[in-house]
């Protein structure tokens, strides 16, 4: 049974092959090979990740089937993913492939006018610039291939479509400068002998270097610090960059909208507000302002390459540097240093006491423990010893204590002077977490901006706590200057980017301090989602950076802000109250100690007087008794 099956299957395959050859007797093997090699060469030229073969769904000829089979087998041998789709499947699955496959090569075979119409229906329903295209026109469709009178396939400016006319070795690229027309350029030469030979070494946007006077609709933000759009032509850094792009790419622009905000997502309406909203609704082609790139915005609009990177910071009015700094006298050393100093003093006291007990130059007084301790502190306070020892070990010990005291006092004096004389701002917090826990400052951000969205939608615990300190939305500033003014007038922290603060720093009415947020914003212009101009604008922006044009434009636009002279206010009583208070406390403590010493001295003197009087009385009594005894003896002798 197995033997008969093994003999039957090869015979059946041979018969099917002969039958197939009879059906397509007019199809030469070289034609199949030509198509296979052509598609393979184009896939390697574009470095496409996969190949998707498109054919008419009602075409069940052996020619199409055999060609698809050969192409699929060819790419399978090269470990390149390939599959076949008809036009109906392509319509249903196009968006699915867009999100899951990295730029495949779509190969389309157009054998008749009906297939051209079918392909037109597919391309009109969706934007086709996502994949690479290879469109192969058969003999009946050569007129359209050589002379495209209209934009048949919804080709855009950034579409990479390679076209092959039957029997012609020239491969052409189709793209559109205007919606109703096709621009055609010879791209490469292909034949079986030389294979694919490009006719130019220029990149995509070096070949497509002009927009041929296309008019782009612009949306701006009224109070953007980087673009002035109130009156007359646009000015500012972003406007200068836009004008340079306009000159390079040959396009004009019309300011269609001047929005009051950058835009946030409104969950109640399900849409965007401000400048982002105009782009999301395709009311304009380009948004010109310093839009912050976020993941949520990228779902609705395209961003150019970052024109600048800027740190996000929390700005507050600089506190008065002359305020009382009670902790300054203890901040000279850390807690560990203070503990080590006290430990060293106690250890030195014990060592000195033990040495005096061993040496015994003179009788040890009963209060020698306290005397040694006070002697050590006297050395640290630059006081002399009541009696300098004669023993060399004791002298070396006291000299070592003196040297360490001089070093510690010099360090302490230098640090203390810097703390007291340098007017540095003192905030009750040093990071965002401490700011949220402190709760003494309110928080604001630019209304309807990515900065506000950061706090409103964040799942970070610290940002959630900070959101509770945010003012109500109607009280949030509508301009950057209004935000900085609020920060100057009240205990309010304004969350903004460093680039914005630097741009308008000359107009800010107070000195500001800031906390680092640890976040960096990418600021750039915006375009409609999947805009056909995103690629070419990004190409030229990168080129501006590479050749130094971007730096030249920045230097032309940025104002050179000369630092203002520091005006120091005269020191009043409040500024020296700390020193006066310390002196006063020292005087009071000294008087108390003096009074205590006087009282102790008088008490001690009284006790000595009483003891002396008692001794005298006893001596008088003894003397008196002796005299009486002597007189009695004399009387007896008589």
Q: If you had to describe this structure to a student in words, what would you say it looks like?
A:
With 638 residues, this protein is α/β, with parallel strands linked by helices. Among the domains are: 30-207, Rossmann fold, CATH 3.40.50.2300; 327-421. It is built from 21 helices and 18 strands. The chain has helices at 2-23, 29-46, 62-77, 87-100, 113-124, 142-146, 204-207, 237-249, 274-280, 295-298, 335-359, 368-380, 392-421, 432-438, 450-457, 461-467, 480-489, 498-503, 534-547, 549-557, 573-637; strands at 50-55, 81-86, 105-110, 132-137, 160-165, 170-175, 183-191, 195-198, 214-221, 251-259, 265-266, 271-272, 286-292, 301-303, 308-317, 442-445, 492-497, 512-528. The strands form three sheets. It has an eight-stranded mixed β-sheet with strand order 2-1-3-4-5-6-7-8, with helices on both faces. Strands 9, 10, 13, 14, 15, 16, 17 and 18 form an eight-stranded mixed β-sheet that branches. The protein has a two-stranded antiparallel ribbon with strand order 11-12. Strand 3 (105-110), helix 5 (113-124) and strand 4 (132-137) form a beta-alpha-beta unit. The protein is elongated. 26% of the residues are buried. Mean pLDDT is 83; it is low at 1-29.
């Amino acid at each position: 049974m197995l033997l008969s099956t093994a003999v039957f299957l090869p015979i059946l395959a041979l018969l099917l092959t002969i039958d197939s050859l009879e059906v397509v007797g007019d199809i030469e093997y070289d034609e199949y090979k030509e198509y296979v090699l052509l598609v393979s060469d184009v896939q390697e030229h574009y470095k496409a990740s996969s190949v998707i073969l498109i054919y008419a769904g009602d075409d069940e000829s052996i020619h199409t089937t055999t060609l698809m089979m050969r192409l699929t087998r060819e790419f399978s041998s090269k470990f390149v993913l390939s599959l076949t789709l008809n036009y109906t499947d392509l319509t249903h699955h196009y968006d699915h492939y867009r999100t899951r496959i990295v730029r495949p090569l779509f190969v389309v075979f157009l054998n008749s006018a009906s297939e051209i119409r079918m392909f037109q229906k597919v391309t009109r329903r969706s934007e086709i610039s996502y994949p690479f295209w290879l469109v192969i026109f058969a003999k009946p469709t050569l007129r359209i291939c050589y002379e495209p009178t209209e934009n048949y396939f919804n080709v855009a400016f950034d579409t990479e479509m390679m076209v092959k006319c039957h029997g012609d070795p020239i491969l052409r690229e189709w793209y559109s400068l205007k919606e109703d027309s096709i621009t055609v350029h010879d791209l490469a030469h292909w034949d079986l002998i030389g294979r694919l030979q490009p006719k130019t070494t220029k990149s995509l946007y070096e070949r497509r270097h002009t927009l041929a006077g296309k008019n782009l609709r612009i949306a701006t933000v009224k109070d953007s610090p980087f673009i002035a759009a109130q009156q007359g032509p646009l000015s500012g850094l972003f406007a200068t960059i836009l004008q340079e792009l306009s000159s390079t790419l040959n396009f004009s622009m019309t300011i269609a909208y001047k929005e009051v905000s950058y835009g946030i997502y409104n969950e109640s309406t399900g849409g965007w507000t401000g400048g982002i909203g105009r782009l999301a609704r395709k009311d304009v082609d380009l948004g010109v302002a310093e839009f912050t790139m976020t993941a949520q915005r990228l779902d609705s609009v395209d961003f150019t390459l970052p024109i600048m990177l800027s740190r996000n910071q929390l700005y507050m009015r600089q506190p008065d540097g002359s305020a009382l700094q009670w902790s300054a006298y203890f901040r000279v050393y850390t807690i560990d240093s203070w503990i080590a100093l006290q430990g060293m003093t106690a250890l030195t006291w014990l060592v000195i006491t033990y040495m005096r007990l061993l040496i015994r130059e003179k009788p040890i007084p009963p209060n020698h423990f306290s005397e040694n301790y006070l002697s050590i502190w006297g050395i640290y306070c630059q006081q002399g010893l009541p009696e300098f020892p004669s023993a060399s070990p004791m002298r070396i010990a006291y000299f070592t204590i003196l040297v360490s005291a001089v070093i510690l006092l010099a360090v302490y004096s230098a640090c203390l002077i810097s703390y007291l004389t340098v007017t540095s701002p003192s905030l009750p917090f040093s990071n965002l977490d401490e700011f949220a826990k402190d709760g003494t400052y309110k928080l604001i951000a630019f209304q309807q901006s990515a900065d506000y969205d950061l706090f409103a939608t964040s799942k970070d615990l610290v940002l959630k706590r900070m959101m509770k300190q945010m003012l109500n939305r109607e009280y949030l500033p509508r301009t950057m200057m209004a935000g900085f003014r609020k920060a100057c007038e009240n205990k309010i922290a304004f969350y903004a980017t460093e680039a914005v603060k630097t741009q308008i720093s000359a107009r800010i009415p107070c000195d500001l301090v800031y906390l680092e947020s640890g976040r960096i914003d990418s600021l750039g212009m915006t375009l409609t989602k999947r805009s056909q101009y995103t690629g070419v604008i990004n190409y030229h922006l990168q080129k501006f950076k590479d050749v130094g044009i971007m730096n030249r434009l920045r230097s032309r636009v940025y104002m050179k802000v000369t630092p203002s002279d520091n005006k120091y206010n005269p020191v009043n009583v409040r500024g020296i109250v700390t020193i006066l208070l310390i002196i006063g406390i020292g005087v009071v403590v000294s008087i108390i100690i003096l009074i205590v010493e006087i009282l102790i001295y008088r008490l001690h003197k009284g006790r000595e007087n009483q003891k002396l009087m008692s001794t005298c009385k006893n001596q008088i009594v003894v003397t008196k008794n002796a005299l009486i005894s002597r007189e009695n003896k004399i009387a007896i002798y008589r």
